[in-house]
Design brief:
The protein is an alpha/beta fold and 313 residues long. The protein has a six-stranded mixed β-sheet, with helices on both faces. A four-stranded antiparallel β-sheet has the order 11-12-10-13, covered by helices on one side. The protein is globular. The two termini are 33 Å apart.
Length: 313
Amino acid sequence: MGKTEMDAVIQALKLTKEFPVHFTFRKIKALSELSLEINQGEVFGLIGPNGAGKTTTFKLFLGLLFPTRGVVFLWGKPPNKIEVRARIGFLPESPYFYNYLKAKEYLQLCNQLFENKDKNKVDALLELVGLQNHKEALIKTYSKGMLQRLGLAQALINNPNLLILDEPMSGLDPSGRKEIRDLILELKNQGKTIIFSSHILSDVETICDRVGIIINGKLQACGNLDELLQPRIKSWEICLKGLLPETINQLKEQGLFLLQRGEETILQVKESEINKLLLELLAKGGKLISVIPRKETLEELYVKKIKVTEKQV
């Protein structure tokens, strides 16, 4: 395939997956000619609407589904090889657990399946994902966020080289999301390769080396964020204090994006207008708090790609 194991962990070439519709001759194309390479030690984010093909892609990478056409290799080998699967950790979107086991018991069972003799492994993982104080509680009492943490611990039980995480932030509060983001970056620093999906685009933008956007089963864009996002400044965000009510009303009448936050007025203006407007507002008694350039975000690119795709359908 042209790359060494040190470079490419996943290599997919024109992956296509079709599912037959029962009692008809029709087929649903869940994935269409996806070609993708994921390299050693990178964090790759796969984003797209519900039903876009993200989970199907992951299952093809894992060897849980077989492609209708195309090929996929992990470390240069087919994904259904035992020696390949032993190097992978997987968190499905909706993990299933034994409700009447305790978290520690469940992870001990997983540990035994991998014939791991390290008795401290389970406690270390429970602490890593923030469940050390709940390890003796029955899994059926866990919240959605706690189940996600337990699923992540299970995915790490075999110390995998590759982690495939389907919506790992689902159900987590902001604090929990930050902890998982930090954990993913820590795992990356250990040399692990991580591919995950998420609808929380700010998380993807924060931690990913590269991003792929998949819509209607097709990869619409792929690359690092510096390549995908327009580097030019789109607009400026100005924050001022002390503007009089009549001045604020005049700004609203001009059709400017305006947000009032206590005594502060936040404006979004075009680059061509910023100097003139700022001088006018300072002359009217405004006190400048901040001026922040705004570039294209991953969310804006994502919405743009969806709109373009909808027009093509």
